Amino acid sequence: MAERTERVLVTGALGQIGSELVQSLRARYGGDHVVASDMRTDASPEICEGGPCEKLDVTDGKMLAEICDRYKVDTIYHLAAILSGVGEQKPDLAFDVNMNGLKNVLDVARERKMHRVMVPSSIAVFGPTTPRDNTPQETLLRPTSMYGVTKVAGELLCDYYWQKYGLDVRGVRYPGLISYKTQPGGGTTDYAVAIYYDAIQHGKYTCFVSEDTVLPMMYMPDALRALIELAEAPGEKLRYRNAYNLAALSFSAGELAASIKKRMPEFEVVYEPDFHQAIADSWPKSIDDSDARADWNWSPEYDLDRMTDDMLAELRKQLQRVGVED
């Protein structure tokens, strides 16, 4: 376990990334040194009994500052955000949470001269004019979703705080993330999580993107490891302070369905694209993450079939624990 005298704060700790990141950080630094915070109050026993938990609205800068002072926080993992699908339905909320919440985090960290702030970005920063195959680290950022707009602005704001104030802000551009521990949270790539749930529970799934829609994806164990490795990387080796391209898998909705069908031959998928399709069509099919590999030795461990094996096995265990039958 790494030694730590001050504390880490995780915002959005009950979301898809946060719920697993909190446990990884507590295993690494000790439960008392990682504060989980979220707007929601339905934390699982694993989260609320494993260390400090606080209710926090990141748009309330005073509340954020008070929590940071009380726990002597020196590092923030800022995960609280409104995702792409919900953001299109509630654009004002997405702007408020994603922009004002981020600025509050950066201001509180700057004023307290914190050690580091980790702010994940997303492939949503790219748009229809971005090269869709092997999308480079530096390219056009012209998104067409509110979520993407806030992520581009967030990347620029993080750069500003590094250049203007010397605040060490770091982050990655996550592709779609797949996990068995939390329910889908309103993102365009969440079909790749929901499909596993419905395969086990119902034997069929109605997909909201087309069969040939290809998007970059990543299994959660790789996603957590990438963020922590970047946080602990020597600063002098980093050419970018935030928004490193990150890649692991690229597959179509049909290829994911086929991977499941190899293990569950009776599984059926119907494709009924909705408003998510336009968002997906504006995003890359594959990502060039050579800078992350060069600067901090990033390398994924999971391919599609290994991920499917693990997802189905772990999700079955989880559903059985909560009393949901196949």
Structural features, described:
This protein has two domains: 7-176 and 218-245, Rossmann fold (3-Layer(aba) Sandwich); 178-217 and 249-285 and 302-321, UDP-galactose 4-epimerase, domain 1. The chain has twelve helices and 14 strands. The chain has helices spanning 18-29, 45-48, 61-71, 84-89, 91-111, 146-165, 191-201, 220-232, 253-261, 276-281, 290-296, 304-321; strands at 7-11, 34-38, 53-55, 73-78, 116-118, 121-122, 169-170, 172-174, 176-178, 204-207, 214-219, 244-245, 249-252, 268-271. The strands form four sheets. It has a six-stranded parallel beta sheet, with helices on both faces.
Summarize the structure.
With 326 residues, the chain is α/β, with parallel strands linked by helices.
- CATH topology label of the largest domain: Rossmann fold
Q: What is the domain tally?
A: 2
Class of secondary structure makeup: alpha/beta
What sort of overall outline do the alpha carbons produce when their principal axes are compared? Answer: globular
CATH class annotation of the largest domain: Alpha Beta
End-to-end gap? 38 Å
**Tally of strands:** 14
Share of helical residues: 40-55%
Assign the CATH architecture of the largest domain: 3-Layer(aba) Sandwich
Strand residue percentage: 15-25%
Query: What is the gyration radius calculated from CA atoms?
Result: 19 Å
